[in-house]
Design a protein that fits this description.
heterodimer; A: 232 residues; alpha/beta; Rossmann fold; nine-stranded mixed beta sheet; two-stranded antiparallel ribbon; 5 helices; globular; B: 119 residues; alpha+beta; Mth169, Chain: A; 2 helices; disordered C terminus; phosphoribosylformylglycinamidine synthase activity (chain A)
């Protein structure tokens, strides 16, 4: 499985996600944002976390207009897999690959801690190594993760099962307190209509090694690698 | 030609920063403020002197980058050098153009642009 990790000026989680992908068995290449094409044979394009362009204008706004994003858009249109984590999710929303927007956290604080999220469905390329409704313990680290969309978009996301993850408590209950950033419907991640594009605020790449305190993020990368291996 | 672009949150979109500012104003004892919404202002210098061309450029800039139309409205004003002559220091403000989906933006609110250098 060939993954291309797009590097923007100000990205800072590319090494972590590359490590997670390699641990899962992927062949990883890093791609500079000024490139107009992804490496031949790319199965998965990854937009890593960080602070592309210093969050100038709006988080992800400038990165979303880079040449590499045109290549990512074309890749997604062909049915290719795209994963955007944290700033990568913000870039996906800004680029129009995912609907809605990520606003300032409701309590205005940058949040950085372990967080439970619920896997809403386990039948996608990203989640097949989880169980449906599984509660996973991963990390959040963001200041602008407050997901918002107009009512019609929300109805579509909910109606078509495009919500990927929700913030929840350790028992999997979606509560006001477990909604760490004020996101509408506690949304932590969403899919595109064909479920080949996933954006999420939490960092699965943080928890892939028991040495760091958890491995609940690893199945996401294993799902991706396994799915491509299966298809091949 | 100069222009000023104002980007504001759509009504109904929660603005936690505006709320925090509101709270800070209240804690300073500044009374009489019912609400604050935070936005952005861009002062843009355009290569053209043609109002129509300027408007087309600004609209494109707003729609493609300056505003996220999912959550924000934009509004721009083009400064044209005073045509009324008489050495009046100031400028005319071309008719404001509003984001089509938001009739609530009030052009009149922006009437206080600082006067900059146009003879």
């Amino acid at each position: 499985m060939k993954a291309a990790v797009i590097l923007f000026p100000g990205s800072n989680r590319e090494r972590d996600v590359e490590r997670a992908l390699r641990l899962a068995g992927a062949d990883v290449q890093r791609v500079w944002h000024a490139e107009h094409e992804l490496p031949a044979g790319t199965d998965l394009a990854v937009l890593p976390g960080g602070f592309s362009y210093g969050d100038y204008l709006r988080c992800g706004a400038i990165a979303a207009r880079s040449p590499a994003m045109d290549a990512v858009r074309a890749h997604a249109a062909r049915g290719g897999l795209v994963l955007g984590i944290c700033n990568g999710f913000q870039i996906l929303c800004e680029s129009g690959l995912l609907p809605g927007a990520l606003m300032r956290n409701a309590k205005l604080r940058f949040i950085c801690h372990r967080q439970h999220v619920r896997v809403e469905r386990a039948d996608t390329a990203f989640t097949r190594n989880y169980a449906p409704g599984q509660v996973i313990d991963i990390c959040v680290a963001h200041g602008e993760g407050n997901y918002t969309a107009d009512p019609a978009t929300l109805a579509r996301l909910e109606g078509y099962g495009l919500v990927a993850f929700r913030y929840c408590d350790p028992n999997g209950e979606v509560t006001v307190d477990s909604n760490v950033n004020g996101s509408t419907n506690s949304i932590a991640g969403i899919y595109s209509p064909n479920r080949n594009v996933l954006g999420l605020m939490p960092h699965p790449e943080n928890f892939v090694d028991p040495l760091v305190g958890g491995t609940d993020g690893l199945p996401l990368f294993q799902s991706l690698v396994g799915r491509i291996a299966q298809a091949a | 030609m100069k222009a000023r672009v104002t980007v504001t949150l759509k009504s109904g979109v929660l603005d936690p920063q505006g709320k925090a500012i509101e709270g800070a104003l209240a804690s300073l004892g500044i009374r009489g403020i019912l609400g604050v919404r935070q936005g952005k202002v861009f002062d843009v210098e355009l290569a053209t002197e043609d109002a129509g061309e300027a408007e087309a450029t600004l609209r494109q800039a707003c729609e493609k980058l300056l505003a996220n139309t999912v959550i924000e409205n934009f509004h721009y004003e083009v400064e044209t050098p005073g045509q009324n002559g008489g050495g009046r220091r100031g400028r005319e403000t071309a008719p404001a153009t509003l984001s089509p989906d938001d009739p609530t933006v009030e052009a009149a609110d922006d009437a206080e642009m600082p006067i900059e250098g146009h003879p």
